[in-house]
């Protein structure tokens, strides 16, 4: 394992990780470098480090999750923390009250790190103001999902080298996607060219102000892309009709071999999961040689270890 040049705490001097917004390129790069070490640790027989020994990590999920919650759990355990999972089914009517009450209750148990997912944008920021520990945003509504963007960047970097100068096409339901927002900010911070492709009903107003090129035609948007990042159609966040039918959506925006052929030869395909096969992506592509989807899951654990480790060094007595 390589020695770090500067301690991550020296480069990443934050108490919380609430979003990619506001992070400097050097901070992002420091986290990715630290995650490279975590990849090595995670591939060994002995996967444990002691940086979180004695610490308590609570995963507080108001919205269900498979890979994000389990990877935060594994990441905490690999660093030696005591990890507790809390899945809270919350009614949207009681949202504000439940959130604050739960935060205050958990805070009284002296956790060191809270990992929080909530269906409302901004809820994790609010919670961070009410507790004395570090807070990590594991996804808040359609706002941010910073560890997803970090794991995507790590996956890209390991295959394509430095991220600047790459063309990354983010495709599909941009409107409802916290993954897209966090990725746009991170990729822009590292100097990539970012494109967003989707039907006009799924492109948010003001998207052009985020420094992306916008396309409503997949073939045009995919032309010469290095990375094709597909998004899930977030039907649970749609009230109303945003796409005529799933079949028509796949016809125009689903990634299949023919559309992918417009990207650069050797372009790589990503998806944060969970995937709707046959809706936004053809199974043959999802499981094909250009797909990085399974590797993204492995990188997810490593990136979460890196974030936990960086924050741990900024904890009191860290
Ligand atoms: C994403 C999420 O929850 O925002 N998934 C994930 O974190 N693995 C994307 C999605 O749900 O479509």
UniProtKB/TrEMBL annotation:
GO MF, one example: aspartate carbamoyltransferase activity
Enzyme Commission (EC) number: 2.1.3.2
Domain Aspartate/ornithine carbamoyltransferase Asp/Orn-binding, first and last residues per copy: 165-310
Record bears the keyword Transferase: yes
Residues that, per the record, bind L-aspartate: 95, 178, 232
UniProt catalytic activity: carbamoyl phosphate + L-aspartate = N-carbamoyl-L-aspartate + phosphate + H(+)
Keywords from the named record: Pyrimidine biosynthesis, Transferase
Binding residue positions for carbamoyl phosphate: 67-68, 117, 145, 148, 273-274
Enzyme class, broadest EC rank: transferase
Known pathway: Pyrimidine metabolism; UMP biosynthesis via de novo pathway; (S)-dihydroorotate from bicarbonate: step 2/3
Domain Aspartate/ornithine carbamoyltransferase carbamoyl-P binding: 15-157
HAMAP family (alphabetical): Asp_carb_tr
PANTHER family (alphabetical): ASPARTATE CARBAMOYLTRANSFERASE, ORNITHINE CARBAMOYLTRANSFERASE, MITOCHONDRIAL
Subunit structure: Heterododecamer (2C3:3R2) of six catalytic PyrB chains organized as two trimers (C3), and six regulatory PyrI chains organized as three dimers (R2).
Role: Catalyzes the condensation of carbamoyl phosphate and aspartate to form carbamoyl aspartate and inorganic phosphate, the committed step in the de novo pyrimidine nucleotide biosynthesis pathway.
Protein name: Aspartate carbamoyltransferase
Organism for this UniProt entry: Kaistia terrae
Lineage, opening ranks: Bacteria, Pseudomonadati, Pseudomonadota, Alphaproteobacteria, Hyphomicrobiales
């Amino acid at each position: 394992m390589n020695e770090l040049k500067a301690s991550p705490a020296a480069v990443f001097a934050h108490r919380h990780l609430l979003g990619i917004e506001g992070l400097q390129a050097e901070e992002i790069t420091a986290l990715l470098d630290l995650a490279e070490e975590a990849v090595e640790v995670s591939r060994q027989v002995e996967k444990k480090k002691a940086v979180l020994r004695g610490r308590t990590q609570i995963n507080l999920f108001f919205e269900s999750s498979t890979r994000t919650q389990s990877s935060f759990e594994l990441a905490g355990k690999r660093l030696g923390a005591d990890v507790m999972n809390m899945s809270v089914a919350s009614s949207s009517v009681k949202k504000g009250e439940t959130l604050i009450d739960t935060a205050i209750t958990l805070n009284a148990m002296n956790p060191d790190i809270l990992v929080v997912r909530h269906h409302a944008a901004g809820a994790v920021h609010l919670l961070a103001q009410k507790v004395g520990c570090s807070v990590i945003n594991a996804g808040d509504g359609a706002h941010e999902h910073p560890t997803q963007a970090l794991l995507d960047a790590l996956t890209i970097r390991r295959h394509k080298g430095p991220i600047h100068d790459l063309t990354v096409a983010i495709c599909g339901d941009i409107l409802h996607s916290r993954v897209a927002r966090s990725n746009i900010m991170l990729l822009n911070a590292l100097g990539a060219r970012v494109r967003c492709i989707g039907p006009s009903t799924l492109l948010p107003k003001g998207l052009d102000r985020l420094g992306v090129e916008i396309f409503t035609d997949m073939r045009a948007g995919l032309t010469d892309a290095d990375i094709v990042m597909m998004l899930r159609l977030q039907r649970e966040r749609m009230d109303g009709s945003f796409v005529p039918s799933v079949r028509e959506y796949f016809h125009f925006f689903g990634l299949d071999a023919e559309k992918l052929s417009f990207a650069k030869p050797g372009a790589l395909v990503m998806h944060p999961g969970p995937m709707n096969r046959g809706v936004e992506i053809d199974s043959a592509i999802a499981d094909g040689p250009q797909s990085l989807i399974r590797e993204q899951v492995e990188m997810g654990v490593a990136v979460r270890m890196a974030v936990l480790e960086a924050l741990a060094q900024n904890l009191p007595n860290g």
